[in-house]
Amino acid sequence: MGARSASVGPPDQSRRIAERLGQLAPQAAGRSVIRVKQSQPEEIAVARRVVVTGGSGKLGKAVVAELRAHGWKPVVVDKVPHPDREVASVVADLRDLGQATEVLSTVDSRFRRVDALVHLAAVPGPGLATNSATFENNLMTTYNLFTSAIRAGVNTVVWASSETLLGIPFTAAPPYLPVDENCPARPESSYSLAKHLEETMATEVARWNPDLSLTALRLSNVLDETDYPRLADHQADATVRRRSNLWAYVDKRDGAQAVRKALEHAVPGYRMFVIANADTVVERPTAELVAEQFPDVPTTREFAGHETLLCIDKARRDLNYEPKFSWRDSLRGN
Predict the structure, then answer these.
(1) 3-state class of 329 per DSSP?
(2) Dihedral pair phi/psi, residue 73, rounded to 5°
(3) What DSSP string describes 215-278?
(4) Which of 170, 181, 189, 291 has its CA 20 to 30 A from that of 218?
(5) Over 90: is that where the pLDDT of 5 sits?
(6) Contact 125/135 with Cβ under 8 angstroms?
(7) CA distance 290 to 46
């Protein structure tokens, strides 16, 4: 006897049934579906369970607090547990692909699905480990998590890239000021080279996976209230912080704000944003600093007050990012 046809009803009806089943499949599998309308953020159906790698670090703890305050359910994945026992924590080595895959799918007694990933775990800067160790750790960890997110069906990924891709240390002058996302990448260390390759990898991974949202945040130097008193040491010599990052910084709470808003404004594809505070870490006006330190560099606008030289216009426009915390207010007790 010949094999029976598996079709049910006329072809048009079968097609409609198949389309309907396709629409219902993600919900039937128990996975949240993120629907994003960037122009109407109030209508976003936001994913709720988010894995935060590096969630026990300086920025990570601020991100966890920010996400919890806005209705998310963060699960910290780090080499050490989060200090707050009310925060779910999983200890893992993300250099291992198997462990990275597990933390984005199921960990018994913690969770059985993940809706989004915030990846902050890394050697956090150049010179903190050997060049090869920094490069291997940061690049492979990011590769493992991108791969694991795809396997687990986690379609929203936000991760920490770095301001260092803009040419830090600025021993050579930038092509223009303020520097922004259109400034050509110029890695000057094994750390920034790995970050550059992470961003390159993200463009291709997003191309392979059209439903995947990958957002790179080129975060400036993350500071908090314990760091601000030391900024007095940088006021006399303008070249100190120029070589670092054009006198820029980001308060950890504003960095956390940027992470949350990147999650909430996720769209398919790869995007990258420069994230800094609105001001610099020195008392001298920005226009005066530029005239003294970069007299021959073209500027795209006039600088008012202590305006940052790491341009955050794109993040303001696309993510509704607006820094709220300044080191100046902190030292004044505000």
Answers:
(1) helix
(2) -120, 85
(3) EEEEE--EE-TTTGGGGGGGSS-HHHHHHHHTT--EEHHHHHHHHHHHHHT--SEEEEEEE--S
(4) 291
(5) no
(6) no
(7) 42
Total residue count of the chain as it appears in this document:
334
pLDDT tens digit sequence for 139-173 = 999 999 999 999 999 999 999 999 999 998 888 88
d(CA 136, CA 10): 56
Distance, in Å, from the CA atom of 322 to the CA atom of 275, rounded to the nearest integer, reads 10
* CA R_g for the chain: 22
Report the Cα 280 to chain-centroid distance in Å.
Answer: 21
Confidence at residue 333, expressed as pLDDT on a 0 to 100 scale: 64
Q: How many CA atoms lie within 13 A of 270 on its CB side?
A: 16
Query: Is 206:157 a contact under the CB 8 Å cutoff?
Result: no
pLDDT tens-place string over residues 83-121: 999 999 999 999 999 999 999 998 988 888 899 999 999
Instruction: Look over the chain and give the mean of its residue pLDDT values, rounded to a whole number.
Output: 87
**CATH H-level, domain 33-224+248-278+309-332: superfamily:** NAD(P)-binding Rossmann-like Domain (3.40.50.720)
Rounded distance between C-alpha atoms, residue 282 and residue 230, angstroms: 11
| 288 CA to centre of own chain | 32
Using CB atoms within 10 Å of the CB of residue 239, give its burial: 0 to 12 exposed, 13 to 18 middle, 19+ buried.
exposed
Please classify residue 112 by burial: count the beta carbons closer than 10 Å to its beta carbon, then call 0-12 exposed, 13-18 middle and 19+ buried. exposed
In the structure, what pLDDT confidence band is assigned to residue 25 with cuts at 50, 70 and 90? very low
Dihedral sign, Cα of residue 220, residue 224, residue 225, residue 229: negative
Q: What is the pTM of this model?
A: 0.84
Mean local confidence (pLDDT), 70-86: 95
Bridge-based pairing of strands 116-119 and 88-91 is unpaired
| Inter-residue contact 263 to 64 (CB < 8 Å) | no
User: What's the rounded Cα separation, in Å, for the pair 207 and 204?
Assistant: 5
Residue-wise pLDDT for 182-211, tens only, equals 999 999 999 999 999 999 999 999 999 999
For residue 278, which amino acid is it? A
Q: Two tokens at 5?
A: 């046809």
